Amino acid sequence: MCGIVGYVGDRRAAPLLLERLRRLEYRGYDSAGICTIAEGGFHAVRRKGRIREIACAESLPGTVGIAHTRWATHGAPCEKNAHPHLCGKFALVHNGIVENDGALRASLLRQGAELKSQTDSELIVQMLDREYDGDPMQTLVRVLRRVEGSYALGVLCLDCPGVLFAARRKSPLLVGVGEGECLLASDLPALASEGMQAYVLEDGELAALRADGAEFYGADGKRIQKKPHCTVPREEIPSKGRYPHYMCKEMAEIPLAIRQSLCDLRQDHTFNDVCEVLCQTDYVEIVACGTAYHAGLAAKYAFERLAGIRTDVYLAGEYRDGLPDCTGGECLTIALSQSGETADTIAAASLAKQRGKTLLCITNAPYSTLSSMGDRALVTRAGREIAVAATKSYQAQLAVLYALSLGAARARGRNVDKEYAALERLPDDCRILLSRLGRIGGWAERFRGARSVYFIGKGADHAAAVEGSLKLKELSYIPSEGYAAGELKHGTLSLVDQRTPVVAILTQRQLAARLMNAVSEVASRGARVFLVTSFPEFCARREVISSVVLPETSPLFTPALSVIPLQALAYETALALGNDPDKPRNLAKSVTVE
Questions:
Q1: pLDDT value for 1
Q2: Among the three residues 432, 462, 483, which one is the final residue of a domain in this structure?
Q3: Cβ-based neighbours of 188, under 8 Å, separated by 6 or more
Q4: How high is the pLDDT of residue 384?
Q5: Per-residue b/e over 254-264, b at no fewer than 16 CB within 10 Å?
Q6: Domain for residue 380, yes or no?
Q7: Distance between CA 310 and CA 264 in Å, rounded?
Q8: In 3D, which of 211, 152, 202 has the Cα closest to residue 16?
Q9: In which residue ranges of the chain is pLDDT below 50?
Q10: Which H or E run contains 13?
Q11: Catalytic residue numbers?
């Protein structure tokens, strides 16, 4: 969930490590640190807070080093729990979770170890120092046999000051080999450099990086040969441009994200292949987490109503735990993840493959773990998303899923020309809607003092409601829930009063009467109702405080539109409360732990 960068070469390591670490800030973190080797010793700086807190480390000596941003799992965010962790001749950075940390901790304490932190990561560096036999690579191999869970590791050893060691299991790690230098990183943007060749470490693999190249090893410690995965594209430094925050900029890029994603599908033979698979499919299951899960909920209606394919959507973390396997026909499992590194989604996808299902992986990262797992893979083209809260990636995911549902419908002989035209217009519809959001700032002033907030909708609008609720929670820290409109009266209505704004979403004409019944119920309890709708005539209802009217589109595609004012509401409410909308507390962009 955090960022790793390592460097070995002929340049000073510290400035380069800090600059590359900043490229990973979007992943979310609560502390940062850096360590270099020079003059026979380690030189380290660790701090709670942002990378700017370790800016003083730029002057550290040495041409070999490791750096890290931490998202707390074991132990509170503080300096002693920040990485790198040092013990004797070793320094280490770690992404992932040591699942048998209790047993390892007890064993180390019995041996007299003096642990300096509350982290599981420190246990690995303590074991390395205790079991060191003069061969850092083989020591690392032995120690990792005792570690259960996930890890991406960058390791320094004082006895090998010109070498950076690495190891990976269930957590992404990349090696970049360039002219006279090597880089280690947990994500591709940190590797970006002219002519850099990227190697992807697979589960169980290790590496030794030197200025003149990298050597790779299997889990048994024996040398293996690897081919580079790609030449890393030159990275443009992200900029907010004229926008005050990345989230604001990324919302403005929603039309482009949809347009590029659809354009790429037309040129991708895999897309047509998947549509043919869907033609023979009896059942689709979508596994995902968070915003991607909500995109799956919205897409369910398109697959079922356009293509006539039964579709279920599972939280990836629950998919493995007692859910029945689908039987009675051909099944396609769609694993959906923006980063392609979401640990729960990767585990669910792996289980689907074990069950013999056809696996389609959809990510925004073509070189991710998930992309390499699928029988087939499709890529959304949302571009880099720096703000932690997902915006444009949600619409890009929906664009691909909607296109698949239409492709499957056509392959089954159904006439969906009207829906195809609506999907082609979707980028322009989003652009028009973005120009209509001026009043959302006024909504935010009414939300900043709310005790709780409810988002309600029916059918596809319920999918938009749960995503809108998530955005508000992420950025404003106000308790919020998304409900199918009729469910409020089954208990939750007792919480509704004058301090409870309700956002109603209405884009399904056949469900309007029942949705407006729910609006009347909450309004009669004192709630202020804000309406997002495709139908202007409902805006004049006396229960409605304020409203936003959506451009006309297919009712099945409205979640891509109706979420935009809800994203804007979360953004404006965060500003009204003095929160940073790009970096909400406690959250990470890429959730690589289960």
A1: 53
A2: 432
A3: 174, 198, 232, 365, 367
A4: 85
A5: bbbbbbbbbee
A6: yes
A7: 27
A8: 211
A9: none
A10: helix 13-22
A11: 2, 589
CB neighbours of 266 closer than 8 A, spacing ≥ 6? none
Other beta carbons less than 10 A from residue 512's beta carbon:
17
CATH number of 473's domain: 3.40.50.10490
Domain housing 567: 436-585
d(CA 183, CA 194): 13
Does residue 452 sit in the same domain as residue 536?
yes
Q: 316 with 342: CB under 8 angstroms?
A: yes
**Are 59 and 190 members of one domain?**
yes
User: What's the pLDDT score for residue 194?
Assistant: 64
Three-state DSSP class for residue 550: coil
User: What pLDDT, in 10s, does the model give residues 205-255?
Assistant: 999 999 999 999 999 999 999 988 776 666 656 678 899 999 999 999 999
What predicted TM-score, i.e. pTM, was given to this entire model? Answer: 0.82
Domain closes at, from 202, 231, 260: 231
CATH label of the domain that carries residue 149? 3.60.20.10
pLDDT score for 141: 95
Q: Write out pLDDT tens, residues 388-407.
A: 899 999 999 999 999 999 99
d(CA 66, CA 154): 7
Number of domains in the chain: 3
For residue 126, the SS3 value is helix
